Amino acid sequence: MANIALITGVTGQDGSYLSEFLLDKGYDVHGIIRRSSVDYRERIAHLEGHKNFHLHYGDLGDSMSILQVVSKVRPTEIYNLAAQSHVQVSFDSPEFTADVDATGVLRVLEAVRLCGLADTCKIYQASTSELYGKVEEVPQNEQTPFHPYSPYAVAKLYGFWIVKEYREAYNMFCCSGILFNHESERRGETFVTRKITLAAARIAQGKQEKLYLGNLSSLRDWGYAKDYVECMWLILQNKKPEDFVIATGVQHSVREFCYYAFKHAGIELEFQGEGLDEKGIDKATGKVLVEVSPDFYRPTDVVNLWGDPSKAKRELGWDPAKTSFEELVKIMVDHDMAKVAVERASEGIRTNLAEYLEKGIVK
Ligand code: G4F
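That is the input. Now the predicted structure with G4F docked in place:
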């Protein structure tokens, strides 16, 4: 039987890398996109002409649309990556987050069942280390108790349990990947790593004065998203449907990420002060480049995530050390240095054009 994958959240960081990965493996890849008047398909634009890549309109908040796509595509694998994925935003939009991140998972599972695909279609659910939340154990593995600590995490906990329930009640091959933070040059610009690498590039090239951040002491286990999509696929190729922790096993603070990103952009920072008064100072010039703002603090924050990927390593043969923390920071900063340089060049062209128009050289 041909491999037919259906990806929800195909326009996101993970969706775009997973599409590339599956197309390379010869899959027919179908993605679900939402209608929007603004272009948000940048990450998959290069795939849109591929003969095995197909897009369908649908929304996790709309069960009929999910049912229609599943019945038309009749996938052999579904990767449910769509979500309201920003933890801080979930405090402002808790109901929307619950609808998409919790009930949305149920809609996918039910669509598979109602289409008669329960025995033939495997389902991957994008679960998260945020389930460990106010952590009860360090590092965290598949046995660590959950303690969700945001509306996002509470919604994702429902997603995790409903997947487990369908696995046991209906014998479906559905599993959760409990992914720790995974970043890349395609990461959304409001997540802390990308916010930092873009700011470091802009500050180094004179396009931004300062970077404002929240909790600098927060600890995360950051991996490279491109490595993590391979593991999503491996989870569905496993003999038994099981849940896996996907992480690097290495932990760093937001402050450390910031230090290494600026260093790679050519600026050595020294951090002074504490809490809201902490500042990141350019050692060479004495200028304050990083400040702390209460705007980026969360009502409850998860501060000690550190994953133990032993099970994925042992049972799936996955290599958590493919891309090191330092390499990840370098990939992201290099990308953003080039991006900012292009922005500057294009502004230069516009400036010249305005000048030429004014002088009547160009009409
Ligand atoms: O980059 P973040 O926004 O990611 P967070 O909250 O860990 O969530 C991400 O990873 C999860 C996997 O564990 C996913 F489930 C989730 O969908 C998302 O992809 O924040 C990381 C840490 C937090 O402790 C936050 O308080 O960085 C801290 N932080 C400090 N200053 C900041 C900032 N976070 C953001 N977004 N912006 C800041 O200025």
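The first helix runs from residue 13 to 24.
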